[in-house]
């Protein structure tokens, strides 16, 4: 049993120092604070990133930069020749020789082939003989007429002296007049025979096939021994031509332009042509004419384009892509003012037209502009925008002044 003294000793305060505190909990607290700070920083970064609106941008291009012309329309077509002919003979005949080959250059009037001239030569010989006979008849009638005229003159003298009868004199005069008429007829027959000889000469000449103009042979259609005819005989053994030649100086381009875009094309409009075979070669060209009719099946209008460069690499039926260019300012004229931007960058805002301009800190500024005419897929901006500034293409409906954007340059 404890005494009172023992109880009092138990109630005494122990003032001796205890064991030192552990540092484990201090490091845990510091690590927790650092983790919270990192999480807060990551959350702020993610929140700021989500605020940036992804947009597509484009740069405003000066309309007077380098006096270059912008494309207002692109189309495709083919190289064609305005002067191309499949040369045939004027008559039906058998080919004796062919003097052309593919790729050969021919001059106007150059002989391309010859037909067998046997029939034509025989006809010419007959015509020449007929002309000779007609001329001989003239000589015979002239001799008879000279005698008849002399006889009529003698009888005229004698009838005045009443040495011959009037009937004899009148008979001599009639004979003279008949011979005069016969001489006139013989001369007419001679003219006819001469005309027949000329026709026979043409028949002989028609056996020679000549080039109608200077050009290059692109096809050889007949061989010696074959029958050629200017008309189709309906069978497979008769040729209708000797060969095909093309005047390379007459090459041009024909393209089909959709009806919806034909209003952008004008005569004398500058064009840049690119052959599919030579994609790096830009050929200057010009619109010749717009054919005033449309293809109802394709809903297109044909446009003729003249090539300003002549080159052996350009051949008929080549595929070509053309860009119709807006007319460049004349030399010495005042350069065009304003810039060109994609048409989709211009939006309606407060009853006017505006663009969203991207600043250096990736924030956008809504700016009112004065828009002009369309230039292909682009549009003129006459005021309110400077060359080199960046604009938002197809701005989202919710894009507002001062918004941060993530740009993707066009």
From TrEMBL:
Does the entry feature the keyword tRNA processing, yes or no? Answer: no
* SUPFAM superfamilies noted in UniProt: HlyD-like secretion proteins
A Gene Ontology molecular function term of the record? efflux transmembrane transporter activity
Q: Check the record and name the InterPro entries matching this protein.
A: Beta-barrel_RND_2 (IPR058792), MdtA-like_BSH (IPR058625), RND_pump_MFP (IPR006143), YknX-like_C (IPR058637)
- Name the source organism: Luteimonas viscosa
- What NCBIfam families does UniProt report for this protein, alphabetically? RND_mfp
Q: What family is this protein classified in?
A: Belongs to the membrane fusion protein (MFP) (TC 8.A.1) family.
* Alphabetized PANTHER family for the sequence: HLYD FAMILY SECRETION PROTEIN (PTHR30469:SF38), MULTIDRUG RESISTANCE PROTEIN MDTA (PTHR30469)
Asked if the keyword Cell membrane belongs to this entry, the reply reads no
Q: Which Pfam families match?
A: Beta-barrel_RND_2 (PF25954), BSH_RND (PF25917), YknX_C (PF25989)
Task: List residues of the Multidrug resistance protein MdtA-like barrel-sandwich hybrid domain.
Answer: 83-229
Which terms in the GO cellular component ontology are assigned? efflux pump complex
- The name this protein goes by in its record: Efflux RND transporter periplasmic adaptor subunit
Supply the alphabetized keyword list. Answer: Coiled coil, Membrane, Transmembrane, Transmembrane helix
- Tell me which residues make up the YknX-like C-terminal permuted SH3-like domain: 339-406
- TM annotation in the entry: 25-47
Coiled-coil zones: 131-189
**Stretch forming the signal peptide:** none
Domain CusB-like beta-barrel as annotated: residue spans:
253-325
């Amino acid at each position: 049993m404890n005494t009172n003294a023992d109880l009092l000793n138990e109630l005494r305060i122990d003032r001796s120092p205890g064991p030192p505190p552990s540092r484990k909990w201090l490091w845990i607290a510091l690590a927790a604070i650092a983790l919270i700070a990192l999480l807060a920083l990551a959350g702020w970064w993610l929140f700021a990133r989500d605020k940036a609106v992804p947009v597509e941008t484009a740069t405003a291009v000066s309309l007077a930069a380098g006096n270059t012309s912008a494309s207002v329309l692109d189309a495709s077509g083919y190289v064609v020749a305005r002067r191309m002919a499949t040369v045939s003979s004027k008559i039906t005949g058998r080919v004796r020789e062919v003097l052309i080959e593919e790729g050969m250059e021919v001059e106007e009037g150059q002989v391309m082939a010859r037909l067998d001239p046997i029939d034509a030569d025989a006809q010419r010989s007959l015509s020449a003989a007929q002309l000779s006979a007609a001329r001989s008849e003239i000589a015979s009638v002239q001799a008879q007429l000279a005698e008849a005229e002399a006889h009529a003159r003698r009888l005229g003298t004698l009838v005045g002296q009443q040495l011959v009868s009037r009937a004899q004199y009148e008979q001599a005069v009639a004979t003279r007049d008949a011979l005069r008429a016969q001489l006139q007829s013989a001369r007419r027959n001679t003219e006819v025979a001469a005309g027949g000889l000329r026709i026979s000469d043409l028949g002989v000449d028609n056996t020679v096939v000549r080039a109608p103009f200077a050009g290059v042979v692109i096809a050889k259609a007949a061989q010696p021994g074959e029958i050629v005819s200017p008309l189709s005989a309906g069978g497979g053994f008769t040729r209708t031509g000797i060969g095909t030649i093309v005047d390379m100086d007459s090459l041009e381009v024909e393209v089909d332009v959709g009806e919806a875009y034909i209003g952008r094309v004008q005569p004398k409009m500058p064009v840049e042509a690119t052959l599919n075979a030579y994609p790096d070669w830009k050929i200057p060209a010009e619109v010749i004419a717009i054919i005033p009719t449309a293809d109802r099946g394709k809903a297109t209008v044909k446009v003729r384009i003249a090539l300003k460069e002549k080159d052996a690499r350009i051949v008929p039926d080549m595929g070509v892509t053309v860009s119709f260019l807006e007319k460049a300012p004349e030399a010495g004229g005042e350069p065009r003012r304003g810039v060109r931007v994609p048409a989709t960058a211009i939006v309606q805002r407060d009853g006017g037209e505006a663009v969203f301009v991207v600043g250096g800190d990736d924030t956008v500024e809504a700016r009112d502009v004065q828009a002009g005419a369309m230039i292909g897929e682009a549009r003129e901006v006459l005021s309110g925008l400077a060359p080199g500034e960046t604009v938002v293409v197809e701005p989202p409906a919710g894009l507002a002044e001062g918004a941060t954007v993530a740009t993707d340059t066009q």
